């Protein structure tokens, strides 16, 4: 399970794009509280903004080496996306403080 900050709608599309990329290998659930949404559902994920959500890949019962490799690649892409989102939000906050 990975945590991801959906602080605004601009973070939704990159997340959906990654989930769609890995759809042939496994499903991805996005969870906030007791709500669970398919990772490929743009509108469903939009409804969870602004919150920190959990990203849960739902792996098949039998995992081959290809699926395992895709699972690790998925985790790396999500972690990279989270870092990029955090860095861009931090940069925006710094720029807004400079304009005050």
Topology record:
Blueprint: E1 2-6, H1 12-21, E2 27-32, E3 35-38, H2 42-46, E4 51-58, H3 65-98
Antiparallel strand pairs: 1-4, 2-3, 2-4
**How many distinct beta strands?**
4
Average pLDDT works out at 86
Structure annotation, total helices: 3
Structural class by SSE content? alpha+beta
- The rounded Rg comes to 15 Å
CATH architecture: 2-Layer Sandwich
Gross morphology is: globular
Give an overview of the whole structure:
The protein is 49% helix and 23% strand. The chain has 100 residues and is of the alpha+beta class. It has one domain (2-98): Histidine-containing Protein, Chain: A (2-Layer Sandwich). A hairpin with a 2-residue loop joins strand 2 and strand 3. The model is unreliable at 93-97 (pLDDT under 50).
Summarize the structure.
This protein has about 100 residues and is an alpha+beta fold.
Index terms:
single chain; 100 residues; alpha+beta; Histidine-containing Protein, Chain: A; 4-stranded antiparallel β-sheet; 3 helices
């Amino acid at each position: 399970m990975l945590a991801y900050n959906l602080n605004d709608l601009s973070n939704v599309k990159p997340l959906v794009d990654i989930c769609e990329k890995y759809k042939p290998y496994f499903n991805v659930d996005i969870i906030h509280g007791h709500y669970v949404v398919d990772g490929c559902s743009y509108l469903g994920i939009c409804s969870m903004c602004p919150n920190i959500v959990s990203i849960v890949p739902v792996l098949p019962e039998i995992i081959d080496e290809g699926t395992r490799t895709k699972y690790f690649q998925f985790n790396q892409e999500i972690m990279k996306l989270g870092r990029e989102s955090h860095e861009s939000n931090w940069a925006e906050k710094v720029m807004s403080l400079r304009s005050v």
